[in-house]
UniProtKB/TrEMBL annotation:
Keyword terms, alphabetized: Membrane, Transmembrane, Transmembrane helix
Protein name: Uncharacterized protein
Top-rank taxon: Bacteria
Annotated TM spans: 15-32, 44-62
Amino acid sequence: MRGQWVQCWVMDTFVIAWVMLLLFAMFNNYVMYRLLKQRNRTDLMWVSVVSTVIPVALFAFWPGAITLMAFPLIQSVGMLVVMRMVHR
């Protein structure tokens, strides 16, 4: 074994950021769908989709820490808007 080169596959931080962003987006939309389905208000699902598409598009066009940090902020605002619309 001595002298052999061991190949190690390491993901780039950019790839990890994309994977986590998309996983959290899917999870947040699933949670919002379940919440809206219980209240028979799936017509408001567009708010959740828009609040997911905006940060993903921002990160796609301008990848960086600031646009990545915009994701939870915009998702939170989207969920707040949905909650206020549901309770009307």
